[in-house]
Write a structure and sequence with these properties.
single chain; about 425 residues; alpha/beta; Alpha-D-Glucose-1,6-Bisphosphate, Chain A, domain 3; seven-stranded mixed β-sheet; 14 helices
Length: about 425
């Protein structure tokens, strides 16, 4: 069974993701990647367990470990870039608390597939160094400071005085850091879901549950919603409407084009990005390129072709002229910068971007290849005015069914039809 998925190794702790697996990964990484390794985690109760096992594996192979504690994934990515080192993030991002994950970062970026494969092969055999060569564990106290200083250098003139923001940190890794940074720019902040207890991360809160934050939003304010590890960001506008990643891409792409920041006037989207966004961008003279679902494929397309903006509807947006990966805080600051520069409300900026109705259903399956059936492909051909995408999740045992088109009721009907069809094949 392949261990590495689209976002590192991820699974239910003590079922798939065990301390032994974490130890083996640490031991293998230490033998393959030269130099020190920075380790961070989100707020899950299993973080300590996996951190201890992972670090034991790393130092057993002779590597020094710099322990950063709880911090967002993009902050760790930045540290590895600034320090020219490797890092491992212990997080399952937006997944429920029973999940956790191990994601390797090297000098700001995810590892290439071939290096992951090599690590996976090395994990089969543990090798120890002599006792005199065992690595040290150093509590790295400057990680947060490095990240905060970097953010302030990116936005030296940003003034958020007078802007009222509700922040939902999903009881995750951003729970104290992001509100503090936004407040330092002058915004008036109210924070919810910022009391992690190890079990409440992403629990009916954060970027995957905007309906929760909507209950706390006062008229005229806006809301920023993060996920558990802080690499995603969506908004609620002044009327409580969701401003998801597609809208954020539309808002920031046009501003970047006006500022000559948008390399080759191109934005990288995925096959799931809304047709309305593509129309809006092309109408504004911006070229669109689509990739497979997953930020690693977006990033690969961007790096290969010199593009600086790409992202997903989920709020995972990459600004390569700012940092190396999706960063929920940088995404938030990019949108807030557009608000301050244009003098427009978030509602005004978002409402001009069309959003065709999308319906997404998730079907739990054991065999994620079951949808590759002639009956399914023939049925897709029947709906010429609707975009139908059926694909396996890269992180969960589910098949995702997406239907997009001009009529919401009809899209729901089509999605249910495909759900029933695939279910009948199980």
């Amino acid at each position: 069974m392949k261990l590495f998925g689209t976002d590192g190794i991820r699974g239910v702790v003590n079922e798939f993701l065990t301390p032994d697996l974490a130890f083996r990964m640490g031991n293998a990484v230490g033998r393959i990647i030269d130099g020190r390794v920075f380790v961070a985690k989100d707020t899950r109760n299993t973080g300590d367990l996996l951190e201890s096992a992972l670090i034991a594996g790393l130092v057993s192979s002779g590597v020094d470990v710099y322990r950063c504690g709880i911090m967002p994934t993009p902050a760790l990515a930045l540290i590895t870039k600034l320090e020219d080192s490797a890092g491992i993030m212990i997080s399952a991002s937006h997944n429920p608390p029973e999940y956790n994950g191990l994601k390797i970062i090297f000098k700001g970026y995810k590892l290439p597939d071939e290096i992951e494969e090599r690590i996976e092969n090395e994990m089969k055999n543990i090798k120890y160094v002599n006792y005199s060569e065992v690595g040290k564990v150093i509590d790295y106290q400057f990680a947060i400071e490095e990240y905060v200083n970097y953010i302030h250098k990116l936005y030296p003139n940003l003034n958020l005085n007078g802007i009222k923001i509700l922040i939902d940190t999903a009881n995750g890794a951003t729970f104290n850091l992001n509100p503090m940074i936004l407040e330092s720019f002058g915004a008036k902040i109210k924070v919810i879901n910022n009391k992690p207890d190890g079990f409440n991360i992403n629990d009916n809160c954060g970027s995957t549950h905007p309906e929760h934050a909507r209950k706390f939003l006062k008229d005229g304010d806006i809301a920023i919603l993060h996920d558990g590890d802080g690499d995603r960001c969506i908004f609620l506008d002044e009327s409580g409407e969701e401003v998801h990643g597609d809208k954020i891409l539309g808002i920031t792409a046009c501003q970047m084009k006006n500022e000559n920041r948008l390399s080759k006037n191109t934005v990288v989207l995925t096959i799931l990005s809304n047709m309305g966004l593509e129309k809006y961008l092309t109408d504004n003279g911006i070229r669109v390129i689509r990739t497979r679902v997953g930020d690693r494929y977006i990033l690969q397309e961007m790096l290969n072709n010199g593009f600086v903006l790409g992202g997903e509807r989920s709020g995972h947006i990459i600004y390569l002229d700012r940092t190396t990966t999706g960063d929920g805080l940088i995404t938030a600051l990019e949108v807030l910068s557009v608000i301050t520069k244009t003098g427009k409300s978030l509602f005004e900026l978002a409402s001009v971007i069309p959003d065709y109705p999308q319906v997404m259903l998730n079907l739990k399956v054991e065999n994620k290849e079951i949808y590759k059936n002639k009956l399914v492909f023939e049925k897709i051909k029947e709906y010429k005015d609707y975009r139908i995408i059926i694909r396996p999740s890269g992180t969960e045992p589910v098949i995702r069914i997406l239907v997009e088109g001009p009529n919401l009721e009809k899209s729901n009907e089509i999605a249910e039809e495909f759900y029933s069809l695939i279910e009948s094949l199980l």
